[in-house]
Request: fold
Amino acid sequence: MITDEEFLRIATYVKQRYGIDLGQKKVIMNGRLENYVKAGGWGNYNSFMDAVEKDKSGSLEKDLLNMLTTNYTYFMREFEHFEFFKNQVLPWARRRAEKTKDLRIWCGAASTGEEPYMIAMVIRDFFGLDHQSWDTKVLATDLSTRALQQAKAGVYNEEQLKNMPEQWKRHFFKKTGQGTFTVTDELKDEVLFRQFNLMSPFPFKKKMHTIFLRNVMIYFDGATKHELLRKVYDFLEPGGYLFIGMTETVDRNQVPFQMIQPSIFRKKEG
Ligand SMILES: C[S@@+](CC[C@H](N)C(=O)[O-])C[C@H]1O[C@@H](n2cnc3c(N)ncnc32)[C@H](O)[C@@H]1O
Reply:
């Protein structure tokens, strides 16, 4: 079992670099790391962390993050958001980007791909044949390389697709095995997957029309969340939208968002 001191060392490391607050999650941390640390022959968690800190290749750190992030997600999650996105956000964004024809949508906690593929399907539906003259690629980032690998592969089983409208299933997935379906290459081309830590400075040259940051800030403490929301606000186009998880909140005393619905926010139109 992990000691209090080892727990604190790992929790501090992960919080400082990645914002993830594991403060009360000692048993969970132990459960997720125990077999890996044993199998690697480190003997205890302190030796493992010494190795993580010394490892220049970053591969141990990658494993640590893959074990400590929670990647739970599913297709159709909080579906009302996608209806709002199609009916309100995309018509606005199309007007706003009329001249350049580049739509800039970012999904900042993309996990295993369900959410960015949903966004891409909605965009495809909305633009119809017009999509050929637009750059509508969705940027999809996450911290976990393991989740991103699955996202890029785009392989899901029948159960995972059970609530998906038939029409989308037919258009955007092909049957590739007994009970398995793979996202079509055409839809994969509409999503650009990259590893990105939300705690890092945002590297974008242009501002976003919409940012999806759903069900990730629950892992951060108040100060971390506030700082992140400030960056998000700065990197939205005037009039741009932010979607957060339906059980999450934004403190509007700290960030000047306009609330459209409890989990949908908008930057003032300039
Ligand atoms: C519970 S999933 C949410 C997935 C999806 N947005 C949804 O709502 O279904 C949270 C995701 O946030 C990612 N995450 C946690 N901390 C992060 C950070 N600092 N930077 C980027 N992604 C992070 C995790 O790897 C995980 O895949």
Residues 18-20, 69-73, 77, 109, 111, 115, 142-144, 147, 197-199, 214-216, 219, 245 surround S-adenosylmethionine (CB under 6 Å). The chain has ten helices and ten strands. The mean pLDDT is 97. The CA atoms of residues 144 and 217 lie 15 Å apart.
